Amino acid sequence: MRKFPSCSVTIKYCGLIKSEDKGQRRFKDQIIVVQQGKHHFSFICKGPVNFRDTFQFQSHPRSDDKPFTFVFYVNGLIAARLPMCCEYKYRNGITIDGKYEQFAIQNISGTKPCQKCKMGSEESAKS
């Protein structure tokens, strides 16, 4: 079983209400990101963020065969979940699905494909 090191993830906060576009003052939202696995739950990022700000965090190391989920909270409520086998398959600029699409991946660095992703790319290369 291969151990995966942590990688650096940069996220853009798109916000829930784009009140800046209407000229209204908006307070910073409290963002919490949790990395949730089958048997663990780790806080990896917490802090105030403005609309359109970016923030960065390090994912926690894990083993190859353990899928996990990043859970994004805004002001104490779950805003989005990003389940994955590894960070490798997510490309920069992709919006993280959630009810309001409040987050977008800006950059992921230091990641390697897991066994599932390697096998998937080998299969698509054969076709």
Q: Explain this structure to me?
A:
This protein has 127 residues and is mainly beta. It has 1 helix and 10 strands; from the N terminus they run E-E-E-E-E-E-E-E-E-E-H. A 4-stranded antiparallel beta sheet has the order 5-2-10-9, with no helix packed on it. It has a 4-stranded antiparallel beta sheet with strand order 4-3-7-8, with no helix packed on it. A hairpin with a 6-residue loop joins strand 9 and strand 10. The model has no long low-confidence stretch (mean pLDDT 81).
Residue runs with pLDDT of under 50 for 5 or more positions: none
Mean pLDDT: 81
User: Main β-sheet: number of strands, strand sense, barrel status?
Assistant: 4 strands, antiparallel
What Rg, in angstroms, do the CA atoms define?
16 Å
Counted by DSSP, the helix tally is: 1
Secondary structural class: mainly beta
Approximate helicity band: under 10%
What are the secondary-structure elements, in order, as H or E? Answer: EEEEEEEEEEH
Overall, the morphology is globular
* Tally of strands: 10
Strand coverage percent: 35-45%
The span between the termini is 28 Å
Strands of the largest sheet, in order across it? 5-2-10-9
- The structural domain count equals 1
